[in-house]
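Long-time lurker. I teach an intro course on protein structure, and each term I like to show students one example going from raw sequence to a predicted 3D structure in token notation. This year I'd like something fresh instead of my usual example. Would anyone be willing to generate the tokens for the chain below so I can use it in lecture? Attribution to the forum is fine with me.
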Amino acid sequence: MANKKKQKIAEARTNRNRWLLWGLLIAAVLATIGYVVISINSSEQELAPGWGLGGTTYCQAVPKFALEMGYDATAVMSTNETLKGLFIYDRPTQLGQTPTNVYQHPSWDDAGYLGTPVNDEAGNIFVAPAPRVNLYDNPPEQQNTVFKVDTDTGVLSEFIELPFPAPMPPENPFGIIGLAYDCDTRSLYVASIAGSSRTEELGIIYQVDAQTGEVLSQLDGVDAFGMAVFNRTKGKRLYFGLARKSEVWSVALGADGKFRGEPRFEFSMAGWGSEGDEKAR
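-- Reply from a regular --
Happy to contribute to a lecture. Here you go:
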């Protein structure tokens, strides 16, 4: 009889300890979830007065030199994959039509083959090398340089040379592979994978002052591809595609355009396209 009583007491104590353990575990999980939610919310700032929802490229203007040459807002600034440098021409009126009124300033092929350009509110053009043809026209030491075409003169010159986090590995001749402009903060975002290898992801996204060329903030350790700034009801975010995966991520931006908090996963593009491995460009 005494043994049964002791056994019941022991079982009751065991059950009580088990429920206590479960309670502590649930509390820890809830605390972790709360911390994550608070961290995400605290990294986002409300939009500044006058900033609208949506994309932030509303201010991008046609270069003044182009307007003086007779081009209008429909003119195309092109970095053709097979032609070296930058070109401007009148937009064809029909699909497949050969471009007309094609012009290239003598300086526009000085940086070799180029990636997609972006404009600011004054009509200045920012562009970076893209060694998609050869390394003779696009030497590795030039791959982390942003060039600028002056809106007044049309001359292309070096704007900012970004640091290399590591020596360029033989399997990766690329440096800057993405540019995005935010009209709200007058920030140029530059995605570089310079120094990244098969085993190391050393990419950096820079926030650059488009007026001075000063690096204002940076996000380390991410090989990013295409980028775009978007204003949400909860704040401003930079969206970017991963160069290594078919995924799109984003990171919060402050009212000054600087990076806030940690990047977060948005959605996967796995299975998209004919090969099933499309990347956001």
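Some talking points for your students: The radius of gyration is 26 Å. The helical segments are 2-43, 64-68.
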